[in-house]
């Protein structure tokens, strides 16, 4: 070739250079596979619910197996040379060698998969066994029976109690944590915690448990959406745990205004301390609809704060509670510009007819659900197209999860102002507010007006007599409407009162003369039946 031209390389040299290039590529690819294996191993052992170093084995095995497979298979795809050393007639691919190598790789990959399933399955079986071994104790404070009229026999309407399998799930967990209850721990610490504590699962089960019907809803629930559910939860009252460690709400001088809940998967939620301690049924739930929490819903323990949207209160797989301030820390969703405080708004949903349904001509029943925690539903109105608004027939209301204890709640009702004044004169405000799970028959102002003024003034001036009369209106346990149909109950005054009637809590008489004018009203610590006559002990 003339000077400055290109000289053609011998074919053998070209093959050597190609082989060298292929070897470099295989090494680089293999190193990448191994690197991904180490990344997966690190992620496995750093997971909050990791079971130890053994969790790294599947990822490491997969990384090395991938590197080996890449090296062997790419090597088998190198063109085979002819006996003369030239490519051309007779050159080909080593098909048999490639198939043998591919088969070996498949076996190795299958082995790695079996190893991974064995490791993960062992941890999962341990968690499942711990859940299966849980025996939930009976509640010290059982939930009131669901009022007879709360469950409507209307085709298409959602169940009053949402089954666990149908309860909505919204979280950021790519893999549902499976926690062994035997190794689970909960730490309470932070600002204003005078006595930091760490609890085991057995510690919680050994405490008096409360059972409550609580509705949860997601702030992302669209109109008519499915992200709302009502279940019967069993758990430890959260306020009691916090007070045992010395926590006080900001209104009583406590330094922390936010309770940050941390999950084993790293999620953080932060309800206001004031809300947790204001008397509502905030709890650390261990049971759901009569069974231990399902893994999907937070086994072994999740937090519930009624009246707040789930993204600030319903922490699943709970492991840590830290008292802090809103200024000092932003939980997960707040960092993403969501609101810090998130009270549930009044909402409703039409269950039947379904969207785009074509009901037959004639009368069509429209039915659904409505909820407003701490407030209750007074009325629901509906209209079709541009027609008139029509008031819906309400089912019996189960509970509003009112946050005020009974004496405080009564002070907010103008129709009970005489009763409130009498309770204050007798010095019973703290007694009633601090009592747990009582029933109060509350006489209206008109009931007191039936008593001649001179007699009423005499009673109000005699603290001992007034206390005797007022405590005769209180029963030391919660009474449902069904129990009032034909009941006899001992009061705090030690006398007996009787009840009779039927209905959803209003068609009843007490001691044969006092009518229940408003029944089954729930406060933070009592069932209240408002009556039209003052009861007199014998």
Keywords, please?
30% helix; 3 domains; disordered N terminus; 20% strand; alpha+beta; five-stranded mixed β-sheet; FAS1 domain; 538 residues
Q: Stretches where pLDDT falls below 50 for ≥5 residues?
A: 1-7, 80-93
Number of helices: 13
Count of spatially separate domains: 3
What is the CA–CA distance across the termini?
130 Å
CATH class group of the largest domain: Alpha Beta
What is the residue-averaged pLDDT?
83
- At CATH level 3, the topology of the largest domain is Sulfite Oxidase, Chain A, domain 2
- Percent range for helical residues? 25-40%
- Briefly note the structural class of the backbone: alpha+beta
Strand content: 15-25%
For the report, how would you describe the main beta sheet? 7 strands, mixed
Q: What's the name of the CATH homologous superfamily of the largest domain?
A: Oxidoreductase, molybdopterin-binding domain
Quaternary structure of the protein: single chain
As a whole number of angstroms, the C-alpha radius of gyration is: 34 Å
Overall 3D shape: elongated
**Main sheet: strand order:** 16-15-21-20-19-18-17
Tally of strands: 21
